[in-house]
Amino acid sequence: MTKPLNVGMIGYGFMGRTHSNAYRKAPNFFDLPYKPVLKTICGLEEKEAKAFADRWGYESYVTDWRKVIDDKSIDVVDICVPNNYHAEIAIAAAEAGKMIICEKPLARTAAEAEPMVQAVEKAGVANLVSFNYRRVPAVTLAKKLIDEGRLGKIFHYRANFLQDWTISSQVPQGGMATWRLDVKAAGSGVTGDLLAHCIDTAMWHNGPISAVCGMTETFVKQRMHAETGKVEPVGIDDACTFFCRFDNGSLGNFESTRYARGHKALYTFEINGENASIAWDLHDLHRLSYFDHRDDSIVRGWRSVHVTDGDMPYMGKWWVPGLQIGYEHSFVHQVADFLENAAKGQPTSPTFREALATQKVCDAVLASAKAGKWETIKY
Amino acid sequence: MTKPLNVGMIGYGFMGRTHSNAYRKAPNFFDLPYKPVLKTICGLEEKEAKAFADRWGYESYVTDWRKVIDDKSIDVVDICVPNNYHAEIAIAAAEAGKMIICEKPLARTAAEAEPMVQAVEKAGVANLVSFNYRRVPAVTLAKKLIDEGRLGKIFHYRANFLQDWTISSQVPQGGMATWRLDVKAAGSGVTGDLLAHCIDTAMWHNGPISAVCGMTETFVKQRMHAETGKVEPVGIDDACTFFCRFDNGSLGNFESTRYARGHKALYTFEINGENASIAWDLHDLHRLSYFDHRDDSIVRGWRSVHVTDGDMPYMGKWWVPGLQIGYEHSFVHQVADFLENAAKGQPTSPTFREALATQKVCDAVLASAKAGKWETIKY
Amino acid sequence: MTKPLNVGMIGYGFMGRTHSNAYRKAPNFFDLPYKPVLKTICGLEEKEAKAFADRWGYESYVTDWRKVIDDKSIDVVDICVPNNYHAEIAIAAAEAGKMIICEKPLARTAAEAEPMVQAVEKAGVANLVSFNYRRVPAVTLAKKLIDEGRLGKIFHYRANFLQDWTISSQVPQGGMATWRLDVKAAGSGVTGDLLAHCIDTAMWHNGPISAVCGMTETFVKQRMHAETGKVEPVGIDDACTFFCRFDNGSLGNFESTRYARGHKALYTFEINGENASIAWDLHDLHRLSYFDHRDDSIVRGWRSVHVTDGDMPYMGKWWVPGLQIGYEHSFVHQVADFLENAAKGQPTSPTFREALATQKVCDAVLASAKAGKWETIKY
Amino acid sequence: MTKPLNVGMIGYGFMGRTHSNAYRKAPNFFDLPYKPVLKTICGLEEKEAKAFADRWGYESYVTDWRKVIDDKSIDVVDICVPNNYHAEIAIAAAEAGKMIICEKPLARTAAEAEPMVQAVEKAGVANLVSFNYRRVPAVTLAKKLIDEGRLGKIFHYRANFLQDWTISSQVPQGGMATWRLDVKAAGSGVTGDLLAHCIDTAMWHNGPISAVCGMTETFVKQRMHAETGKVEPVGIDDACTFFCRFDNGSLGNFESTRYARGHKALYTFEINGENASIAWDLHDLHRLSYFDHRDDSIVRGWRSVHVTDGDMPYMGKWWVPGLQIGYEHSFVHQVADFLENAAKGQPTSPTFREALATQKVCDAVLASAKAGKWETIKY
After folding, report:
1. Between D216 and which of A350, D125, D254, D369 could a Cys-Cys bridge form, CB atoms 3.0 to 4.6 Å apart?
2. Co-location of A212 and A297 in the same domain
3. Which domain CATH number covers C50?
4. What is chain A's alpha carbon radius of gyration, rounded to the nearest angstrom?
5. Domain boundary among A101, A132, A163
6. Are residues B284 and B309 in the same domain?
7. N- to C-terminal Cα separation, chain C
8. What's the average model confidence in pLDDT over D302-327?
9. Which chain D residues are Cβ-neighbours of B321 within 8 angstroms?
């Protein structure tokens, strides 16, 4: 017997859509202890909020996020607004005893994230940060292969997140569509937006990063603000590269940019172990590349595993072998895991605390780039 | 203002799931003239039907498909049962004035399909056969590129549909899960199940096929029946290859099998024109390969187009560039197109009549294989 | 102690170059019982013949091939002229007791090839037909994997040879550069030139073909003759598709065309067995794709084997792992194998007799296409 | 009329073979002003030297490299010995007025390389360092595309060189086969051996590197010496990662390791420009990936250019479109260019002076890794 679980969604932008879709689909495919009910959508513009409610089947809409917090019937608060609003909303939600799903990165800085962690832990509420790529089946499979010890000792972890959508200097900063270019809203550029994903996956796969050394660049120095129309200095990092050392002795190399012509959202990682290696990329997210040195030498090669069979992570819930799922499904898996764990009183990774560690690495990378030297990280 | 449209779904198997998902998702992503309402699910087993209704949000369930037909409130009948039931249900639905979406192939033979076409045309009801792969964005894009004349005169059309799930002689025939191996239920083997998709796409892309010459094989000659437990002769074709001539002078080469180890659902096609060529496959359905001879020679090569940008067919409705959709979305597009056209009183391709043409080609292929000579096709 | 072996090369065209290069390189990389000496080059035009001799280090040149036959010092006659000259030269060479390497196809027809076989067998001379692709390491590896039984029972053999160089109707027929389009010189079009390769490999890999059914097309019906300047009907097949049955019960599907825009020399094959499958293509000839169903299911996928390690066929003789060889090396391997076998008095496959079988399949395919029905093949 | 050019080869190891092959093949395929004559091979072991001379057709062999220098008939000295011998031999050769081709890296350090540059410049002799990958046709094509301005402003240059042959701690250091692991012979590990290639290509493509920041690691801390049998500390870098800034404002990210399981010799680079991007890798060296943002958006994608047509760099000299060449051909091109330029009194890039710049970057990377901070480079 599934219990209804009332969802209050804050934010009707791109992430509001991915999360709403996830709540709707999860119970069609997974056997869940809760049945999500889309109770309230909250967004700044009433007309937009109403249209979103109609489209997605929310029972109501509000324009002030505090009303979501104050609504006793709401069980889960889902935060899909720009980064600068995460802390205030999340802390209020925690204090109100709500479960919380928060979009990534947790906050603009570790300093801002720290009280969020304290708030959810003090309140004892279920909490999750939406590093959704962990739950792409191929990425989850990679974790499984590592945990089974198939790779042996790890030597290298390599990850990139390459985009090309801000090459034109005519792209503005700020506003609804381009707040990610506005340092006040986003906190940082590719580091918080994209490398945070890479770091989250990397530390999940390969353990803590102990020290980093990075370089950043801002190619377009000033952009018009989308709301004010004023040309203003750009405060974010357009590109960031860093190398690092993991606690387990392996080396990391990470790079992100929004100036890699030809790549829309090319998140890639590769892990080299003593016995085997793994590679993956988001542009073909349904495949995992795997090389096993223990194969007979004459038939040894990189395997392209089409992660669609029923024994693959999450895939038993979807279609039949050979038929791929896509980007949106990572959010469905996230909701399903969150609800299953919440019903058992168990945490769902990455928690706020785990996301704080990612934030600390991001902060260290930016500090390192500024100082031109290594930074060690204290968790 | 969208009108509700009541859906009566017949069949709760794999296709019942893909279609139910499509009705639920379509209005979240597309601006539709109708809002589909999941009214009734019909399936043989009451317990299963009830569970399906609960999971997908159907308002009711029945175990006799005639009740769906007789229900005046039902607007659309969606037929997702084995092929041997298509004709009877579709004709009854047409006579009751229902819109009809029918799974492919239209029927087991052209002779069985013919009265279905007559019924829907006589009744003047909206009708569609679910050759869903047409509406994978990359496949729709291929059609667009051909229609724009980018390929020039077409010389070759090549398509395969390769699977490997029936290699073991322990796989039974008949029953819920394996009715596709039972000639009484399916009508034929890979020809009707898989090549029908290839033929539908091919004639959409490249016009009518005028004559065919084929070969079939049944590798496993007898299998246990899933329901009776008796070992019985296998009546279906396990593999079928044919070549053909199109009305436009181009040559076709088609092959399907369920004995191609390593391929789960590898539908591939390639089209070679005077100026350009196109290739696609279902295992990476979000990509289209394109070669244009008019490119500068030193940078000329096959392009791998990641069909995710907003200006690609259907993709403006989904996520952002670089983020792929999957198999299930082809059904969402199908529902969206069907509803939009229905509201305008326009047919949605492939109609029953178009699917009859595909059936005729399938029949001719099988007849040719039996006779060991060419068969011409009369539409 | 290696003995010198005097080579008389007949033909200084494209194949004359590939063979000359092979004789020069073989002893640098292989430990051979003979040291090839480039004795005489024979070609129609004296100036060209002399230039070729200078470039490649031939000791002499002649313009009449009979002088090569009559030269007692010549040990090996290598025939690299258009197909219509193969029979006369080969028979004369055999009668003169020369070893013979002959370019493929053996002749224009099986009828023409038959006395060639008889001549070499009567004379007891070493003989080889240059189906060089067998000795691309990845193709040789495929043979090894099949022979080891890794694939299990074979169900399907699929091969294509796709080119695009004759799409323009301005390409002439006949003459030095385009004799392959002249039916008098070539015997047939893509069937003898390209499918012959596919058939040779297929029967080597998978045993005899018992029956075929084919279709051919000539897209450009007339072309100017390169020598006479006259527009004449085109007598060759521009495209040919056939399916077939092998003696071992497997099915074949073959296609070749020179109208596949975007493919220069795309010879591909794929073999599907009960337990494993293999795929290869000439555009990345240093790789073999391999799928093994017996792999653990969660890491099962097509492997891309980079055939460059020292334990791969022939590769121990070349560079180091990861460093690829190319097209020309298949000819070096052919020469090396031929010389090694000749020293031991052993035949080198494919012999004239084996190439005759390939010729018979080609003839049957063309006859089948003409008659519109199956043809069985008697070897 | 070609003049003979006497070659004195010093070193009969792997590189001695690649260079010898190049001298032999170059005149068969290129129209050269000189005809290379393999005059003398020099190597430490007489028996080996003699065998090498026999195999490759050297007229004589010696075991003391000074005899090559002293031989007045020698025109070109080709240095294919471990790095620690480069300086002494090259300086002596220059002083003797010989043309010099020297294997890469030029020396173990910039300090060691400096007098080599001075020597060749003072002597005015033709000189070249064998960074052969520049002359893989696809890499040369990349240079051409950049120089034509197709990429526009460059933002990123990314290169890796990944191997896996030293993962086992049982691999020794020192000796003939593994001198690359001995810091005394090699000077450094992956930095001088592999990254030097990446840096050479990068500065050729993208101009000078102004500052670097790197990290190195030695995973296996001690290895047995191949000659002494003693276990000794390992002095080389097993892995090296660095990022950098180019003079043109673009950012670089470079990584090399011999611990990347699954990669034999995977040299890769990618260049992202405002309008277009390029990518290449050594495991498929005959292809260049190219993305052009100016393509029509619906057919825009990464192009896989099969660099085999006659209008591609160097390819007009080889076979026909579609037929690939391999690793060894880069050395043939190098010899051909060197001889053509030498005849005209023109330098061939990369000269000793250019290779010194690469050496300075290598030194700076290692110094940076040691110091844990950026190093600027003065050329």
Report:
1. D369
2. yes
3. 3.40.50.720
4. 21
5. A132
6. yes
7. 41
8. 98
9. none
Question: For residue D88, how many other CB atoms are within 10 A of its CB?
Answer: 15
Q: Do D322 and C282 touch (CB under 8 A)?
A: yes
Indicate the average pLDDT of chain A. 97
Residue B333 lies in a domain: no
- pLDDT tens-place string over residues B218-277: 999 999 999 999 999 999 999 999 999 999 999 999 999 999 999 999 999 999 999 999
pLDDT score for A2:
79
pLDDT range class, residue B176, cuts 50, 70, 90:
confident
Q: Across the interface, which of A297, A299, A305 has its CB nearest the CB of C299?
A: A305
Give the C-alpha separation, A225 to A260, whole Å. 23
Q: How far is D179 from chain A (nearest CA, A)?
A: 23
Best to test chain A binding among D156, D245, D295 (most A CBs inside 10 Å): D156
Q: Is residue D222 located within the same domain as residue D360?
A: yes
Strands of A104-144 (E only): list them.
127-130
Contact (Cβ atoms closer than 8 angstroms) between residue A63 and residue A49: yes
- Residue B273 domain-assigned (yes or no): yes
Option in A55, A321, A327 nearest B319 (CB)? A327
Beta bridge partners of D4: D35
For residues A215 and A217, give the distance between their C-alpha atoms in angstroms, rounded to a whole number. Answer: 7
Residues of B at the D interface, defined by Cβ within 8 angstroms: 141, 144-145, 150, 287-288, 290, 292, 295, 297-306, 309, 311-312
Give which of D303, D304, D308, D309 to mutate to test B binding, by max B Cβ within 10 Å.
D303
CB under 8 Å to A155, separation ≥6 — which residues? A250, A251, A272, A273, A274, D167, D219, D239, D257, D259, D260, D261
**What does the alpha-carbon distance between residue C228 and residue C184 come to, in Å, rounded to a whole number?**
14
**Closest to D298 (Cβ–Cβ): which among B297, B298, B311?**
B311
- In this prediction, residue D1 carries a pLDDT of 55
- Between CA D129 and CA D112 the distance in angstroms is 15
Domain range for residue B21? Answer: 3-133
Contacts of A among chains (3+ CB pairs under 8 A): B, C, D
Question: Looking at residue A277, which CATH number applies to its domain?
Answer: 3.30.360.10
Q: Which two tokens stand for residue C267?
A: 């010879």
What is the three-class DSSP state of C255? strand
How confident is the model over D89-148, as pLDDT tens digits? Answer: 999 999 999 999 999 999 999 999 999 999 999 999 999 999 999 999 999 999 999 999
Residue B330 lies in a domain: no
Boundary of a domain, candidates B133, B148, B166? B133
- Residues A238 and A266 grouped into a single domain: yes
pLDDT in tens, C253-298: 999 999 999 999 999 999 999 999 999 999 999 999 999 999 999 9
- Report the candidate in B188, B263, B239, B156 with the shortest Cα–Cα distance to residue C245: B239
Which amino acid, C34? Y
Task: Tell me whether residue B334 is in a domain.
Answer: no
Torsion from C-alpha of C222, C225, C228, C232, nearest 10 degrees = -20
Residue C3: strand, helix, or coil: strand
The answer to whether A286 and A307 have CB atoms below 8 angstroms apart is: yes
Predicted pLDDT at A1: 55
Q: How many domains in chain C?
A: 2
pLDDT at B1 over 90: no
How many residue pairs from chains B and D have C-beta atoms closer than 8 A?
56
How many helices (DSSP H) and strands (DSSP E) are in chain D?
A: 12, 17
- Nearest chain A residue to B58, by CA: A28
Contact A304 C301 (CB under 8 A): yes
Residue C316 structure tokens: 């121990």
Both C162 and C254 in one domain: the answer is: yes
* D149 & D118 share domain: no
DSSP element (H, E) containing D243: strand D239-246
Shared domain for D114 and D162, answered yes or no, is: no
Q: Do D348 and D276 share a structural domain? A: yes
